[in-house]
Amino acid sequence: MNTEKLLAGWAEVDITPDMPVCLCGQFYARVSEGVRDPISATILVLEATGKNGREHAVMVSCDFVAIPAEFKKAVVAKTKTLVPEIDGTKIIMNATHTHTAPEVGGDILRGTAGLEIKDIYGVELPVMKITQYIEFAASKIARGIQGAWEKRQETGIGYGLGYAVVGFNRRVSYYDGSSAMYGNTSDTQFSHIEGYEDHTLNIMGTWDTQKNLTGLIVNIACPSQVDEILFEISADYWHQVRKELRRRFGEHICILAQCSAAGDQSPHVLLCKQAYQRMWELSGRTERQDIAVRIADGIQRVLGDIERDIKWQPEFTITSKKIRLEGYTVSLKEVKQFSKEAEKARNEYERLKKEIENNPEIMKQSRWYRDITYHFRKYRWFQRCVERAKNKKNSSVQIEVHVVRVGDIVFATNPFELFLDYGIRIKAQSKAIQSFIVQLAGGGTYLPTERAVKGKSYGAIGPSCLVGPEGGKQLVEKTLEIIHNLF
User: Fold this and answer.
1) DSSP letter at 210?
2) Model's pTM, two decimal places?
3) d(CA 462, CA 468)
4) How far is the C-alpha of 109 from the C-alpha of 377, rounded, in Å?
5) Are 416 and 397 in contact (CB under 8 A)?
6) Cα angle 144, 147, 153; round to 5
């Protein structure tokens, strides 16, 4: 719609639990043993008024691995009670993909809503129930949305493109044609890094009528998982980024983090590891602190230029659409292979379960649950893929995408850990001057490229995926179609 006035409201809420939780992001369970730094949800409400009425969008970024459907439903329902004017279909939630935040329910691969700890990990653990945490976090986010809605004020937006080296392609390829996540680059059979890297830094800021910066959307192609195996709650590098940006630009500003297409990306260094480590030590910074400085430097270099072109009446439109994508094809050979892997993991789980039943003292040992939960998760991971293939349940998959136009830029969402190539294709062909790809605006699962599927391994095989390369092409085409219609 043609905008006569743009309103914006910001909020940030602390969603750190006050008791132990099961941390999401690895096959084995991790019961939180403290809080390294708080996790939060950041909210931006945008509302445009014009001759044709009003339009609004609510963006919510959460320090989670993903946004399962049941969690979003809880947020939407609670928001509807608090703010009836907000259309639930216009609430967009994305995850930063920190591996040190609580479980918030089943992902797409699990296929079941309302899963609890024993369903997920095969044993009971002394942690907050998932349903209890969902109630806690969803309530806080809904109140945050209410607060942001009530704080709406006349706003201008500015946008720009910077650079910050944060994400690296994490798939290592070898001479035999295989690839491996975090493969050994010192191996004599190492050939190359499998795919591309995107170091662009997409930025949108909001300013009040006095031209004071009120908040930033920061979009980069890298998940938040420097310390992904911690047994502590943490927002990972986004905690340091928020601190650094507030130190430079004002303690009052909100920072909404978005992960662009980055299913094959990671902050982990695979090349020149010793050189990187040496430079962190010389600088007196941790890896996470160094990432924060890189991002803040990238923003600082362009923010002055962005401020010279603030738009007070940008075109504003939001579209949500459900689309159907071709599912990942699992061959008969792979079904046999995955069946064997499932049986192997199940047998080991049953052996460990019997051992614990016969000797309950084992449960007094530190992190006693690690091995048994690993094998249970592996069993279910392979078994669910086998069941889907045999029952042909994932011949096609329906997902929801959102596209928001703000002036000459667009935000385009998807629910996947989307491999980088797909995001690059959308950016390259988009009619917008700048396109913010927002992955993990949903329950997760990888969407790999053609070359990744050829290389195999985690992230590019049937148990990791519901949608394959053909579906990826369809996602690109349909997203571009929506974008083009908005222009």
Assistant:
1) T
2) 0.96
3) 9
4) 12
5) no
6) 130
